[in-house]
Amino acid sequence: MAELSYTNEDGDSVKTSQFLKNRGSCCKTSCLHCPYNFTLTKHGLEFKELDLSTMPKAQRIIDDNSPKDDNSVSASLLASAFGSAKKKDTISKFQLQNYRLVELKGETCGVVKVGSVGVSALYLKEHFKDQGLNKDIVSSYFSH
């Protein structure tokens, strides 16, 4: 069963998108995890450049979205039969300009990797994965 609320870093109780979906309709009060796109439409997304102080935060979000290492025999057999899984994205201090923190209402909700044509990858924090954000939507808010 999906969790209905969690405690954020400030100690506040935050309702999840599952809680808000269970209510059945949008209350139009700009809930952080609004699954009805009201908050996203009203506030939009902000993109913050990374620096050495924010790099670890961004890397944790990327790591949380990456496949876990599996050294089992079955994983080895599957990798040899179908190719290995995608490698984990790792930020270096020389690539900071290729990443941005994504914020909704001042709260970090994810990280994007950017290339010459815009957003090439999206990594969302766990509590933001179930409210309809995806690479195409996030890309529509991104501008160089």
DSSP, total strands: 6
The topology string of helices and strands comes to: EEHHEHHEEEH
Described by strand count, sense and barrel closure, the largest sheet is: 4 strands, antiparallel
Low-pLDDT residue intervals, each spanning 5 or more residues: none
Strand proportion: 15-25%
Which word captures the global form?
globular
Helix-strand blueprint:
Blueprint: E1 5-7, E2 13-15, H1 17-23, H2 38-43, E3 46-49, H3 55-65, H4 73-82, E4 99-104, E5 107-115, E6 118-124, H5 135-141
Antiparallel strand pairs: 1-2, 3-4, 4-5, 5-6
Give me a quick take on this structure:
The chain is an alpha+beta fold.
Observed structural traits:
single chain, 144 residues, alpha+beta, four-stranded antiparallel sheet, two-stranded antiparallel sheet, globular
Give structural notes.
The chain is globular and about 45 Å long. By secondary structure, the chain is an alpha+beta fold. The longest helix has 11 residues, at 55-65. The chain contains five helices and six strands. A hairpin with a 2-residue loop joins strand 4 and strand 5. Strands 3-4-5-6 form a four-stranded antiparallel sheet. It has a two-stranded antiparallel sheet with strand order 1-2. It has helices spanning 17-23, 38-43, 55-65, 73-82, 135-141, and strands at residues 5-7, 13-15, 46-49, 99-104, 107-115, 118-124.
